[in-house]
Automatic annotation (TrEMBL):
Pfam families: Peptidase_M16 (PF00675), Peptidase_M16_C (PF05193). GO terms for biological process: proteolysis. The chain crosses the membrane at residues 1012-1028. One of its GO terms (molecular function) is metalloendopeptidase activity. It comes from Camellia sinensis (Tea plant). Residues 209-390, 696-874 form the Peptidase M16 C-terminal domain. The keyword Transferase does not apply. This is Zinc protease PQQL-like. Residues 52-171 form the Peptidase M16 N-terminal domain.
C-alpha cells in the first residue's frame, strides 16, 4: 500500500536510486592507494594517512598503529605487549606521572578503559579523539603519538606503579565470558604460537616481569617501519597536518635493519575438534561451531563480488536461524552465523547458538541439519532476494551519508588498510559496485559458501554448560548422524511461509491537524491532531538517512498492585517475542526486508514509551508500525507462551548463577529497601506470572493516542511527513483505557539507609573477583532544582576524575572507576524534592577492597573540606563543554532535549491548568480564551527548553572551587562519612582454597602479633574434620588428605614463648575470633558405614628441624593409619611435632626418658571421636553423587 503523496517521489529518485552503474571487469584490480586521503611514507619508514572530514566539527580522530602484538612475545614475556601499552600513558620522555592523561582530560578528550588503546595478538593501536579548535591542540596530540612510538619510559618505578592496574584488568578478564573465550581461543589455535599468546598474558609475568624485559620487547619491535599515523578530522588543510606529522616523527631514527615481523601459521585439521566446556557461572547453555580457513585476498572486482556473495550467504542463513527460533518448540533461543578474522593469517566461519539447559545436543542437531539442508537444496530465490534487499539497503544508507561519516569510522578504515591490506575505494565507488553486482549474484552462487561449514574444514565444535550433561562422544554421535542423513539425502527442502505484502491491510481515514505551534528558538513545530495526540518534529541535517522518534504517555508499572507487578512488567518482553505489530516476528522480518524502519516499546515505572529509527524514505513504514501498535492486539498462543516463559526461566537461572547479579541485587535492596519494584524477579515469581494478563496489560498500554506526545527529529521534510502522519492517524477511544495525570501518579516507595552500612556479599566464583559500590544519598530541593541537577552532573565527573587519580594513578590498584547518578525512582512531580543516589564503583584485588573504600572516602571528604583545585574545575568544565558540543551535532541529543522540555516541571499538559499555576498575574483573563491559551502554551514549550540551557549556563558561569565545594556539601551528606552504604562482592572460596590462603597469608598477618600456635591450628583442624565431611574426596573407602605446610612456622616456633607454661595458647580476643572464623568451613572428614580411614599427614617440608606425624588408637588397642574398629565407641588421635624426623624420634624412644625429652620438643594433642547419627549411609552416598561436581570446583583432588 503506497501512502506517499506525489511530492515524495522526489525522495526516491535522488541519491542512491539515481546512481549510475559501473562498467567493471571481474579481473579489474581495486586501487591499492586508499581513497580520499593523503597517504605516504616518511624517510624513516613511518606510514601516514591524513584526511579532512567535518563530522564532528572541530574534532580529530588520531591513531598510531603498531604491527606488534602478543604473538611476538617469548615465554617470559607473555603479557609484555599489553604492559607496554599501559606504560605509554604512564610516562614518556616528555611526560611523566600520567601527564598525558591529565592533558587529555584538560582539553576535554576521552580517556578510559578500552577507549585509548588496544593490544591484540598481531598489533597494538593507540587512539586519541581530540578537539582542534585551538591550533596547538592538534600539534600536541600528534606529539603524544610520537612519544608512544619511541619514547615510552620503562623504569622499575613506572612498572611497579602500573602492575596493579594491569593485574586488575587481568582479573576482570577472568570472569565467565573471559574464561570461555580464552578456552575457545586455545582450542581454535591449537598447534600454533597464537594458542599460547593471549594478549592479557600470564599472572606470574605481570607480577614479576622486570623492567629490562619490557624495555627489551619495546626496543625490539617498536620500529617506525612497522607503524602508521592516521589523522582524520575537521582540517582546513591536510598538508599542514602532514607537516605536523613530519615535525614530530621526522627526526626520529629507525633501525637500518629492523626485524621482520614473522608469520605464525595456524595448522589446519581434517578431523573436527570437540569440547564440552563446563562453566558454573555461564549465563546459559550454548553451542559454538567454528571452521577455520585462510584469510581471502581482496584485490580484484571478482574478490569483491565473492565478498558480497559471502555476506548474502550469512544474511540468508541467519534468516533461517531466526525463523526456527521463533517456530513451534524451537531447539534454541537464538542462533547466528558470521565470518570473523581471528588473526592475521586466519579467519573463521562461526555459528553461535544459545539454548535451554540440557538442550545443547538438540541445538547442535538443528544447526547441523540446517547447514546440511542448504548443501542439499540451497537457498530459494525469495531468500536470496531478501538478503539482496538487506545489503542494498545498507549500502544505500552509507551512500546517502557518505559526507556525514564519523571521523572515527574513517580512521578505522585506514587502520584496516595498514594492518590488513584491506582496500579503501570510497563509499561512492563501493555503492556503484554493489548496485551493479548484487542483482547478478544467484542463489547457487550464494549457497556454495555452505561448503566452508563442513566438519572436515578445520572445524571446532564446542558446547558450554553450567554443569556437564553431554560428553564428547555425544557430539561425535550427532555429527555422524547428520552426515549419514545428508549422504542419504533424507533432509527435506526448506518450506517458506506465506508473507503478506502490506503492513496495514485497510487504508485508514486521514485525520486533521487541530492546532499548530512554531518554536523558533529550538527550530521545532508542534501539531495537535484530531485524535488528541501531540506531535512535535524538528528538521536537522546531521544525517541524511536518519529519522528518530519517541512517543510517551504518563502512567506505568507504579500504578499496579504488587500481586500484578511481575506479570505486567513482563508484558513488553512477552509481546515482543510473540509479535507486537499484528505479525509474528519471523513474518515481519521478511516484510521489512530492504527497509530501514524499527520500532520498539518500553514499559517503565511512570511512563509507557515507543521509539523508532528509520530512513526518511521509510518513514511511512515506521508510522505504519506505530499504527499497528495502537490498533492490533497481542494474542498469545499456548505454544508461544511456553517458549517465552522457558526463555525467561533460563534467563533468571543464569542471573542466579552470576555473582554480579547477586551483588547488584544486594545493592538495590540496601539502597532502596526491599521494595517489590526494585527486587529482581526470581523463579518463584516467574511461576506466578500470568502471560495472558501481561499481554492484556501491554495491549491496554497502547490504546489511547490522546495521552501520547510524540517527538520526531531528523532529516524530515514537513511537506512529506505531515500527510503521512495524518494518513496513519488512529482514532481516539470512546472509553480511554489508561489516562493518567502526571500529578496523580503513585510514587515508588524507597528510602536510603540513615546510617552507615558496610557489607560483604560472598558469592561462589570459579576465580576471585571483587567489585565495590559506594553509595551516597542525594536530595535535590525543589527551589534549586534546575541548578542542582546540573551540579550533580558536574560533580559526578569531578568525583570520577579524582577517585581515578587516587586509586589508579597514585596507588596503582584499580583499572577504572565510574561515578553514576540515579534519580529515576521519583515520580514526575512538579513540586516535590528529588531523591536518589550517587554511586562510586570499581573493581580491585579482594584483599585490599576495604582499604580502597577508605581511600575513596578520604578523597571525597577532602574535596568537601578543602574543595577541588582550579585545575580540577577547569578540567571538568572542558570535558562537559566538549561533550555538549558533540551532542549538538547528534539527533539523539535533540530528541532527548525536546522530550525533557515536555517532561520538565514548568510544562503543564493541560493549558488551562498551566494558566492558573504558572501565570497567576493574568488570572483575570478568561479561561475560555483560546487565543490566550495558545499563546501561553507556546511560551511554555519555549520556557521549558530555555530553562534547561539556562540552568547549564548558570552553573558553568558560577562553578569555581568554592561553589563546587559548597555543592558537594549541599548535595552529598557532609561529612560524607556519616551516611553511606558500601557493598563489596567477594569470592566464597572452597574449603581447600581457604586453608591454603590462610596458611600462606598467615606469616604476614599473624606471625608476630597473633602468635598462633600449631596446637591451636590443629585443634580447629580436627574439629572441622569431624563435623563437616562434605568437602573431602573419596577413593572408594579411603581418604588421603595430604597437606603441605610449607610455611607452618607462622603458627609459632614450637617454643614456650608462644604458649603459657601450662600449654595454653597465648592468643585470645579479636585475633582468636578471626582465626576461628577462618576455620569454620575448613576441612571435613567422611565416615562411611561407621568406618573411617585415617588420613596421612605426609610430605611435610621440614622447617627449623621439626616434623609432624599423627598417631591413632582405639581404646583398647593401637593402630597406625588404619580403619576404626566398629566395635569401639571412642577413638583417640594424638598429634606430635617432633624435633628431627620420625626416625630420630623412634630411636630416641629407646633411650632414657630424660634424654628423649632433651632431644624432642613434642606437642601432644588428643581428641576423642564418637560415632553419631550424622554419618548415615544415605548422606554419604548423596555426597558421593556430587563427586564430579566437587572435583570440577577444585574442592578436592581425587
Amino acid at each position: 500500500m503506497d501512502l506517499l503523496p506525489a511530492e515524495s517521489s522526489q525522495i526516491k529518485k535522488h541519491g542512491f536510486r539515481s546512481l549510475k552503474l559501473v562498467n567493471a571487469n571481474m579481473d579489474d584490480v581495486l586501487a591499492e592507494k586508499p581513497f580520499g586521503v593523503d597517504y605516504g611514507r616518511l624517510e624513516n619508514g613511518l606510514c601516514y594517512y591524513v584526511r579532512s572530514n567535518s563530522k564532528p566539527k572541530m574534532r580529530a580522530a588520531l591513531a598510531l598503529a603498531v604491527k606488534a602484538g602478543s604473538v611476538l612475545e617469548e615465554e617470559d614475556e607473555r603479557g609484555v605487549a599489553h604492559i607496554v601499552e599501559h606504560l605509554a600513558f604512564s610516562a614518556t620522555k616528555k611526560y611523566t606521572n600520567h601527564d598525558i592523561v591529565k592533558f587529555l582530560e584538560s582539553i576535554g578528550a576521552e580517556f578510559g578503559p578500552c577507549q585509548n588503546a588496544v593490544t591484540s595478538a598481531d598489533e597494538t593501536v593507540y587512539e586519541l579523539f581530540v578537539p582542534i579548535d585551538k591550533p596547538e591542540l592538534l600539534s600536541q596530540a600528534i606529539s603524544i603519538l610520537g612519544e608512544f612510538s619511541s619514547e615510552v619510559r620503562v623504569s622499575t618505578d613506572d612498572l611497579e606503579k602500573e602492575r596493579g592496574a594491569v593485574m586488575e584488568e587481568y582479573r576482570g578478564n577472568r570472569n565467565a565470558n573471559g574464561r570461555m573465550q580464552d578456552a575457545h581461543w586455545v582450542l581454535m589455535m591449537e598447534g600454533s604460537k597464537y594458542a599460547e599468546r593471549l594478549p592479557i598474558g600470564l599472572e606470574r609475568v605481570i607480577q614479576t616481569v622486570s623492567a629490562d624485559t619490557v624495555k627489551q620487547f619495546y626496543g625490539k619491535w617498536y620500529h617506525l617501519h612497522n607503524m602508521a599515523v592516521i589523522a582524520v578530522g575537521d582540517f582546513s588543510d591536510t598538508q599542514s597536518v602532514v607537516e605536523l606529522i613530519r615535525t614530530h616523527f621526522g627526526d626520529k631514527s629507525s633501525s637500518p635493519d629492523p626485524p621482520l615481523i614473522p608469520l605464525f601459521p595456524v595448522p589446519s585439521h581434517e578431523e573436527p575438534r570437540f569440547s564440552c566446556f563446563v562453566e558454573s557461572e555461564a549465563a546459559g547453555s550454548a553451542v559454538m561451531i567454528s571452521c577455520k580457513m585462510p584469510v581471502d585476498e581482496l584485490k580484484t572486482v571478482k574478490d569483491y563480488r565473492n565478498l558480497l556473495a559471502e555476506s548474502m550467504f550469512f544474511h540468508a542463513l541467519n534468516q533461517r536461524f531466526f525463523k526456527i527460533s521463533r517456530g513451534k518448540d524451537p531447539p534454541y533461543f537464538s542462533c547466528s552465523a558470521a565470518a570473523d578474522v581471528l588473526v592475521r593469517p586466519v579467519k573463521a566461519y562461526i555459528m553461535t547458538s544459545s539454548c535451554k539447559e540440557k538442550g545443547t545436543i538438540e541445538a547442535l542437531k538443528s544447526i547441523l541439519t540446517e547447514v546440511a539442508r542448504v548443501r542439499l537444496h540451497g537457498f530459494s530465490e525469495r531468500e536470496i532476494s531478501v538478503a539482496r534487499a538487506l545489503l542494498m539497503s545498507e549500502i544505500e544508507s552509507a551512500y546517502l551519508e557518505r559526507d556525514q561519516m564519523q571521523s572515527t569510522s574513517l580512521r578505522d578504515e585506514y587502520l584496516q588498510h595498514f594492518l590488513r591490506n584491506e582496500p579503501v575505494v570510497g563509499v561512492e565507488y563501493e555503492a556503484q559496485l554493489q548496485k551493479t553486482i548484487l542483482p547478478h549474484i544467484s542463489a547457487s552462487e550464494v549457497s556454495k559458501y555452505v561448503e566452508n561449514f563442513r566438519t572436515s574444514c578445520s572445524c571446532v565444535i564446542k558446547t558450554i554448560e553450567p554443569w556437564a550433561t553431554v560428553t564428547v562422544d555425544d557430539l561425535k554421535t550427532v555429527v555422524s548422524m547428520i552426515n549419514s542423513l545428508e549422504e542419504e539425502q533424507s533432509i527435506p527442502p526448506w518450506d517458506d511461509e506465506h508473507i503478506p505484502e502490506e503492513i496495514v491491510n485497510m487504508k485508514p481515514n486521514p485525520g486533521d491537524i487541530v492546532q499548530q505551534f512554531e518554536y523558533s528558538n529550538i527550530g521545532a513545530t508542534e501539531l495537535i491532531l484530531s485524535n488528541g495526540m501531540r506531535v512535535c518534529y524538528k528538521y536537522t541535517d546531521f544525517f541524511d538517512d536518519q529519522v528518530l522518534f519517541t512517543g510517551f504517555s504518563y502512567g506505568g508499572l507504579s500504578e499496579l498492585p504488587e500481586n500484578e507487578y511481575f506479570s505486567c512488567s513482563m508484558g513488553s518482553t512477552i509481546a515482543g517475542e510473540i509479535g507486537v505489530f499484528g505479525y509474528r516476528p519471523s513474518v515481519l522480518m521478511d516484510m521489512l526486508a530492504g527497509k530501514r524502519a524499527e520500532v520498539g516499546t518500553k514499559l517503565g515505572a511512570y511512563m509507557r514509551t515507543f521509539s523508532g529509527d528509520c530512513s526518511p524514505s521509510d518513514l511511512e513504514t515506521a508510522l505504519q508500525l506505530v499504527y499497528q501498535l495502537f490498533t492490533t492486539d497481542v494474542e498469545p498462543r499456548e505454544e508461544d507462551i511456553k517458549i517465552v516463559m522457558q526463555m525467561a526461566e533460563e534467563a533468571v537461572r543464569a542471573q542466579e548463577r552470576d555473582p554480579y547479579t547477586a551483588f547488584a541485587n544486594r545493592v538495590r535492596e540496601l539502597n532502596y529497601g526491599n521494595s517489590y519494584f526494585f527486587r529482581p524477579i526470581r523463579i518463584g515469581d516467574l511461576k506466578k506470572v500470568d502471560p495472558f494478563k501481561a499481554c492484556e496489560y501491554f495491549n491496554n498500554c497502547f490504546k489511547d493516542p490522546s495521552t501520547f506526545t510524540v517527538v520526531i527529529v531528523g532529516n524530515i521534510d514537513p511537506a512529506i511527513a505531515c500527510p503521512l502522519i495524518l494518513q496513519v492517524e488512529f482514532q481516539d477511544l470512546l472509553n480511554p483505557v489508561f489516562h493518567f495525570s502526571r500529578d496523580d501518579l503513585k510514587g515508588l516507595p524507597f528510602t536510603f539507609p540513615s546510617t552507615i552500612i558496610r557489607e560483604v556479599v560472598r558469592s561462589p566464583m570459579v576465580e576471585a573477583q571483587c567489585s565495590v559500590q559506594l553509595c551516597f544519598p542525594v536530595e535535590l530541593k525543589n527551589e534549586n532544582m534546575m541548578e542542582d541537577i546540573q551540579f550533580v552532573g558536574f560533580l559526578s565527573k569531578l568525583l570520577e576524575t579524582k577517585i581515578l587519580q587516587v586509586l589508579r594513578f597514585k596507588h596503582g590498584q584499580i583499572y577504572s572507576a565510574g561515578v553514576s547518578v540515579f534519580l529515576g525512582g521519583n515520580k514526575p512531580s512538579r513540586v516535590d524534592n528529588v531523591r536518589g543516589d550517587i554511586s562510586v564503583n570499581f573493581s580491585c584485588d579482594p584483599d585490599i577492597s576495604t582499604t580502597l573504600v577508605d581511600l575513596a572516602l578520604e578523597e571525597i571528604l577532602r574535596l568537601q573540606e578543602e574543595g577541588p583545585t582550579d585545575e580540577d574545575v577547569l578540567t571538568i568544565l572542558e570535558i562537559e563543554q566538549r561533550a555538549h558540543e558533540n551532542g549538538l551535532q547528534e539527533n539523539y541529543y535533540w530528541l532527548d532535549r525536546i522530550l525533557r522540555s515536555y517532561q520538565s516541571r514548568i510544562y503543564f499538559g493541560d493549558v488551562g491548568t498551566s494558566f492558573e499555576a504558572a501565570f497567576p498575574i493574568i488570572r483575570n483573563v478568561k479561561k475560555s480564551s483560546i487565543f490566550v491559551k495558545q499563546i501561553f502554551h507556546y511560551y511554555l514549550i519555549i520556557i521549558a527548553a530555555q530553562v534547561q540551557e539556562e540552568g547549564r549556563s548558570k552553573v558553568r558561569k558560577t562553578l569555581t572551587p568554592l561553589t563546587a565545594q559548597l555543592a558537594l556539601r549541599r548535595i552529598l551528606p557532609f561529612p560524607c562519612k556519616k551516611q553511606y552504604t558500601v557493598v563489596i562482592l567477594m569470592p566464597q572460596r572452597s574449603c581447600f582454597k581457604k586453608l591454603k590462603l590462610f596458611i600462606h597469608s598467615a606469616p604476614n598477618r599473624y606471625s608476630r602479633d597473633a602468635k598462633v600456635s600449631p596446637m591451636l591450628f590443629f585443634l580447629f583442624f580436627f574439629y572441622f574434620l569431624l563435623f563437616y565431611p562434605e568437602y573431602i574426596g573419596w577413593r572408594e573407602r579411603r581418604i588421603d588428605l595430604v597437606i603441605s605446610l610449607t610455611r607452618y612456622t607462622c603458627f609459632g616456633r614450637w617454643a614456650n614463648p608462644h604458649f603459657s607454661r601450662h600449654g595454653r595458647p597465648d592468643c585470645f580476643g579479636s585475633q582468636f575470633v578471626e582465626i576461628f572464623t577462618q576455620f569454620t568451613e575448613i576441612l571435613r572428614v567422611c565416615l562411611f558405614r561407621h568406618k573411617i580411614v585415617i588420613w596421612k599427614i605426609g610430605d611435610f617440608q621440614q622447617e627449623q628441624g621439626y616434623t609432624f606425624f599423627l598417631h591413632y588408637q582405639n581404646i583398647g588397642g593401637t593402630y597406625h593409619f588404619d580403619e576404626l574398629n566398629p566395635q569401639r565407641k571412642t577413638s583417640v588421635f594424638t598429634l606430635r611435632a617432633v624435633k628431627g624426623d620420625l626416625k630420630d624420634y623412634k630411636s630416641a624412644k629407646k633411650k632414657k626418658k630424660k634424654e628423649k625429652k632433651q632431644m624432642t620438643n613434642t606437642i601432644h594433642f588428643v581428641i576423642k571421636i564418637k560415632r553419631i547419627d550424622m554419618y548415615r549411609k544415605k548422606r554419604i552416598e548423596s555426597l558421593l553423587d556430587n563427586k564430579k561436581r566437587l572435583s570440577n570446583q577444585n574442592i578436592a583432588k581425587f
